[in-house]
Amino acid sequence: MYRSKIRLNALAFAAITAFTTTATLSKEEPGSYLNLYTGTSNLSSTNLTESRPAASTLNGKAKFGSGVGLGGSYGYRYGNGWAAEIQWDYRRHDLKNVAGTTLDGDFASNTLFLNGYYRFDKIGSIRPFLGAGIGWTQEIDIDITRNGQELSYSRSGGAAIQAIAGGEYDISEKWSLVGDLRWMRVNSGTFKAENAASGGVLVGKPKYQPVSLNLGLSYKF
Fold first, then answer.
1. What CATH number has the domain bearing residue 118?
2. What is the pLDDT of residues 2-14, one digit of tens each?
């Protein structure tokens, strides 16, 4: 009976020690961090109409091919799972065709975000997180090349939102490998020709709703 109690107490002590050690390892220390990332980006199709002198009018659904993105952020972790950061994000997507007509060009954006995150306790070696942000699009532009002439249309000042989900893996005490999926949306607006003398006109308000898959490095100060 006495030995059984000893074994029971020993097992209870081991369980408490293991739980405390796990909680300590999964706990996040407060402090600043810097994150740099790059990845692939996918842009959904959108309707647009473009006209220019000495060329037929394009009118229909624009479809996009491969895209790339990159960016960085500086933030602060509060030690309780919550974090806030300022982020810069750039994305570029190749234009495949408009209404079935093959074209060269791209649809790109340059955006600043203010993000909030919640990082959960580790699951194994991975710490999952969720985040969301509001932003301001410094510039978003569409380049279209046809009949040997490239014309650019742009707009600035559009509001943007994004949702983020991902996880991080600690490489060392300071460095972490970070992977995430980001969904972004910029409010609709009017695009104007960057060279007014070209006579090009882009009608409508093309949607800009990219989704990106990123891989990056984070450094904790």
1. 2.40.160.20
2. 444 444 444 444 4
